[in-house]
Structures are given as structure tokens and as C-alpha cells.
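Class, look over these C-alpha cells:
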Amino acid sequence: MRIKPIVSSDTVSEKFFEKGYLDAIPILSQDEAQGIWEEVSGSLELDGPKRFKTHLLLPVLDDVIKNTGVIHVVCSVLGTEDILVWSSDWCIKKAQSSGFYSWHQDSTYAGMAMPEKAVTVWLALTPSTPASGCLRVVPRSHKWGQLAHEFKPSNENMLSRGQHIVVGEKIADFTNEAIDLRLQPGEISLHSFRSIHASGPNQTDYPRIGFAIRYCAADLQRASRITEKESAILVSGVEPENCSFIMESPPNRAMGVEEVLEWKRAVDRENKNYFQDNPVRQTYHR
């Protein structure tokens, strides 16, 4: 099956390659963003396993991951029209909450042979500001390669292993170099899987709600340590020969029987790889 390809943009790709991120790209109106959140929150409990890959459960989220504006930018930064969505997850901080994400790289546990062929798109559905705990990223850190991480789980750290970057024996402090990615509802940011990023607690009286989508080039190969073949959904171009992923089916109805089965198979495969060397599966935050 061929999905209409999107023409790339040299300007967008040059900025991304230089800094490792893009921010404040308008994709949806604020009313559209609010409508998506109302439909999702009315259909799912998102504090658990259904935080992940919910684009397989709800047609409204299938529309989001295939949004032509998003696909245009993703094709530009990845340099190909053949694009998969590998995963997605909800990043929700309740009002006046202490949860945070420590400094990390998405590449650490993704199990990808070339993380440069993957990108995270972060869609804001409520205002994402320094006060509400917006994403913070270190410019050009995607050029530093894979850095060492250590585990320090805590109730406040929203990463499942409490993973954070270390330099030698000290936890790296990137606060002086990091910038805030401020987003209004309906805007997206993008960051490389190698980019160092984090976010602080939500000190406002409203929830900070974001939908993170993990896109990758369709010819991306998995790392040798990956034992379970995972699944992904084609959103642009064509599936390559010898694809590293099982192809997923888009949802036809919200929370249908077949949709739930497809979602469960996909999440089970992903979790087997993500937790393969971590015997303590403490939460579904990752």
C-alpha cells in the first residue's frame, strides 16, 4: 500500500540537524487540540498501560499521527518519505504535581541500531510552559553520541527506571545550557533521539498534557540486543523489503475488539524488549 509522500523542506532539515530540535510548529487549532483531548480522556484511562500506543485504539489518534503537517516535518528531518510510527505515549503532569523527567536520551533504551533515523514529536494539548513543566532540551547535544545513564528510581521521576545521564561519577548538570520548548495547544516540537532533554514539575493549576509520537525511517534496523520483533504502523511512503517491524493495522473503531487485540500484541512486544534487562517492572511510566 502506498500513502501519498510529502515533499521535504531543506530549511527545516538544516535547522534540525544543527540544533537537534524544532519547536512551536503550529499543527492544530486550540479548539482541535481541546477536542482531541476530550475524546481521548472520555475513552481511556491513561494512568497505566494504555498510556502507550493508543493510536492503535482510537481513530482520532490515528488521524493525529498521520497529520499531513506533522508528516511533512518528519519527512524533512529524516530525509525520507518512507516513515513508520514505532510508538506513542502520553506525558501528563497533573496540576500542582511533583513529577518530573530527569535528563536523558530517548536512544538509551529504544534498541535502534541508528537512532539518528528516529525522532520524537511532542504535541501539546494544554499550555506547556516553564511553570507547567515544559520540555527542556540542550541544543546540539544530539551530536555528542550515546552518553552513559544510571538508574535511580523514585516516585517523582516519571521515567520507569529513573534513568539519568552521568558524566564520570557525577550526574551531569545541563541546566545552564538547556532551553525551554514553550508550546501552546496544537503546537508541536521535535527532538532527536540523541538530544538530551528533561522537564520539571507542574506548578500551575492546570494539567500539562502532551502526546509524544516516535517516528522512524521505515528502513531503520534494530540493535543486536533486541530479541522480540516489534510492530509499527506505516504513515508515509512504502514498507521496505526486509523491514525490521511487523506492520500494524490502523483502528477502524474506538476501542473495538480487534483494535484492543492489536494494541495488546504491540505493547507486549515492546515491553519484552524494554524491560528485558530490568527485572523490576515498577510502573508504566517510561
About this structure: The first helix runs from residue 10 to 19.
